[in-house]
Amino acid sequence: MDFVKELKRVLDENSDKKAAEPMAAYMKNLFPYLGIRNEKRKGILKPIWNEHSAEIKSDYRNIALELWKLPEREFHYCAMEILYKEIKNRYEKEDIGLIEKLLTTHSWWDSVDFLAKHILGNYLLAFPDEIPKVVKRFSDSENMWLNRSVILFQLGYKSKTNEKLLFGECRKHASNKEFFIPKAIGWALREYAKTNPEAVVEFVSKNRLSPLSKREALKNL
């Protein structure tokens, strides 16, 4: 893949070991970094993307996967940005397999949250009949990040939010003590409160949520 090779070459040339250390430390040293800040990385990506636009448009799924295989986190960010732009309005039902792979590989809040809102969320808007099946499978999974993704995928839905589904997932996972789950519950409720604050206040008052979830849900009310 010419695009992946060229992007890797240029990003490697712009790596900064001194900057990479604190970037990796911020992410609990789960991934190595090249030390390229987002603004600079996007500036590097744009002309290479333009130069290889035909290749990317015809093979963006495989390109995203190839970038995801690379260890440095900057390549994962590039993969998500490419996938978000290229797959829009071109989803296929089988893409749920790709989405699940990305959600469960190199998983941390920065990738999972982007994928949940922008990739999974848009996929389920494109295929609403898939919502019950996908939500049940992800919600019942032992993988915490899949659980988090079904709590968060409606973040951008606003008036299209399925309130019953959202509240059901929040209620189902309310007893989960893993930090990222109650945090997600609070975030999802806080976001929905921008559309229906009364419903969120009532839900929080009538359900046993963690202090973290309650605090996050009602933060702006």
TrEMBL record:
InterPro entries: ARM-type_fold, DNA_alkylation. Pfam families: DNA_alkylation (PF08713). This is DNA alkylation repair protein. It comes from Flavobacterium agri.
